[in-house]
Structure formats: C-alpha cells, structure tokens
Amino acid sequence: MNVPGRTPDPRAVNQLALQTTRLELRPLPAAAAGALPEDRETAARLLVAALSPGWPQPDLLDVLPMQAAVTRSGERFGVWVIIERESTTVVGDIGFMGPPGEDGSVEIGYSVIPDRRGRGYASEAVRVLVAWALAQRGVGSLAARCDLLNVPSIRILDRAGFARSGESNGQIRWRLEKGP
Questions:
Q1: Is the pTM above the cut of 0.85?
Q2: Residue 3 in contact with residue 89, Cβ under 8 Å?
C-alpha cells in the first residue's frame, strides 16, 4: 500500500497482506509495536498508514511488548492491523494469541475503534483472517472468546462459522474446526 508522501521504512511493511473490498489486514511489524503507544509518528511511518486517534485501544497495550519481541516470521501469528483502505488509516486490530498449539488450535481476537464500529469491519476482518488461518499448515481449528453480553461479537463469531463450546467467567468460548 503506497501512501502519497510517505516512503516505507525497510523495517516496516511485512509483505503479507490480506485485502477485502474495504480493508487491508497486515501483521503488526515488531518495530511498530515497539514504538507504540508513545511514538505514534514512527509507528505510522513503519505501517505506512495513519493511526486513528483511538488506536491502539487499552486491551492491546499489554500485548504490544510481546509483539515487539517477535521475529519477522513470528509476526503472522500475533497482532494484525485493520487498515481502512479508503483513508489508509488503522481502525482496529485482529490477530492471534500465538502460533498453533500442539493440538493445531489458534485463538483469534479482534477490536475496532468505537467510531468505526457498526460498519461491518470486524465481520469482514474476521472472515478473511479465519480463511487465511485455516489455510496455514499446522492449523486445525480456531478458538475465540467474547463477553456474554457482547451481542455484536456473538453475531460476528456465529456468522463466521464458530460454534459455542462453553461458558466461563462471564465469557462464551467459541470453536471453529477445519473442514476435511
């Protein structure tokens, strides 16, 4: 993705990118994760995208140091940014809680900034990242969690093909098995 007036930093844009009509998903480069949340200018330069004022959200802040420590090859099973293609702006994040476990399962999580919610961005991002994950060697299933009262997230996971697998601590657990 080229942004007029911005020259990509060689440490920046990971070659892996997934696109929908309205969104582009890319692994968050370790260098950009290391710059956040304080040095937004450097992170934006590394991402070759503008950062929404509301991103990163508080839930992501604890994960940034782990993402900053991953190797380039490890970035793909960590945090991904959701970029609104029309504005070339980061509007959320999606990704995995790590590489596939011994059982072949990866857990997915996602978040869209409040002023971009209700546009179907999370649904779009979940669909494309789930399809990508299930095509990866070593991935046999996906897991997810959401709060019992988070109706939009419940709808997103249900529509993406996840099935409820249990409840605990005020959250619904979800699972999606790879087909034959």
A1: yes
A2: no
